[in-house]
Specification:
globular; 187 residues; two-stranded antiparallel sheet; single chain; alpha+beta; 7-stranded mixed β-sheet; 32% helix
Length: 187
């Protein structure tokens, strides 16, 4: 693995779930070489929609030649706009890691999906199943050692740990995802 791997990290922009608010938000992607930002991309996605998978694929393909790894803040954007990690990996061929800061209560998520999407929850829940097991590892950051959780496709766990040690500096989030989160607050 290169000392300064080229990554693209994704997070969603600020949004509201109130019924009278805007129904879309932006998906922000930040390309980094090591921890240095080199580009920003974005695409509009629907709050609680089903377009995050296609949006991710489109944005990754903009930098297909250069990006080596894809990282996301969890597998959900814009509320319950859940992306299919397996499909993104298959269509882009890029190793993908979905980072989350805490363990997930799968039963609670399923109940929330059933309540909010009684006619569409099965498709959304299947995307969570497609993500596979949730793994955890300890990484060192400027604030000291910390635990993170992740789903992944197309990369070995040992390589994930090596990658995270290179791109998680100030927080447990990889720098490309942290920057996408900060930029998303501007919307």
């Amino acid at each position: 693995m290169k000392e300064n791997p080229i990554t693209i990290g994704f997070d969603d922009a600020t949004f509201s779930l109130k019924s009278n608010s805007k129904k879309t938000t932006e998906l922000i992607g930040v390309v980094c070489q090591g921890v240095r930002m080199v580009n920003v991309v974005r695409k509009t996605i629907t709050i609680d929609g089903d377009d995050a998978t296609d949006a991710l694929i489109t944005l990754i393909e903009l930098h297909q030649k250069h990006v080596q790894y894809v990282l996301t803040d969890a597998i959900t954007f814009a509320g319950f706009n859940i992306y299919d990690i397996q499909e993104v990996y298959e269509k882009t061929g890029k190793p993908i890691i979905a980072i989350t800061e805490r363990d997930i209560d799968l039963d609670a998520v399923k109940k929330a999906l059933i309540k909010k999407f009684p006619n569409r929850y099965k498709n959304k829940f299947q995307k969570i199943i497609n993500a596979g097991n949730l793994y955890q590892t300890e990484i060192s950051t400027a604030g000291g050692p910390t635990i993170i959780y992740f789903h992944f496709k197309g990369i070995e766990i040992k390589k994930i740990e090596s990658l995270l040690s290179k791109i998680c500096i100030d927080s447990k989030l990889p720098e490309c995802v942290r920057l996408a989160h900060i930029i998303g607050k501007l919307f």
